[in-house]
């Protein structure tokens, strides 16, 4: 059975002006349940204490200031969210959810987090709606608990996974791959192990051809024992913060390539949702829902 990390806190009720990025975390589960892609038994609420692996990933001083409301005004602006105790609790739960999803994935091949993919969070700072880097935290959990030799973080959000790249810059056991808009945020990119910068306006066929070639190289050269997939849907042509031109069908084919590639190579994978900022919330929810539909039809 597909297991999906979810908690009501993921749908944090923010002040007007900050609410839009959060709406999909409430609507997506509702859509999946309504159409019968999943049922309530597919969802689990995170319960693990993630602090040990958070502190293996993030600077202790940063975590302390984050927890105690001591971030500077500049740090709060860079994060994109107003500070609140609820936001901090949400970030800890997100990390716990991705860790627990890796546990399910190790047993059954795949698991998902309805949120997560907070790839702009650095070791010592947050930015771009990301305060703690859940996939990096879960990768450190796997290194600590399962002694894996190679983990791949496959980031297909339209924005480069700059925080993830920085966190693992000196960790040979985690390979970071980011395929993103070359001229998109962040303007200053970090160096992933492999970055592919996509030109503005890149369409379905161009994008999928590049990705398919990259996946073949990654499996051959990296030989990952575990994959984290950041499946942001801000690659859509309709996205307000993206500069690529993928259709919803093209985004679905992207996910199909990744999902079938991981399954056919017997590599367990955890999938987190990442970004999505199209004008119509229905486009965001449908594009994300396709990822779940594909996982169900491919694995279960």
UniProtKB/TrEMBL annotation:
Residue span(s) of domain Histone deacetylase: 19-289
Protein name, per record: Histone deacetylase
Domain of life: Bacteria
Keyword Hydrolase: yes
A Pfam family: Hist_deacetyl
Keyword annotations from UniProtKB, A to Z: Hydrolase
Family per similarity comment: Belongs to the histone deacetylase family.
InterPro entries linked to this entry: HDAC_classIV, HDACs, His_deacetylse_dom, His_deacetylse_dom_sf, Ureohydrolase_dom_sf
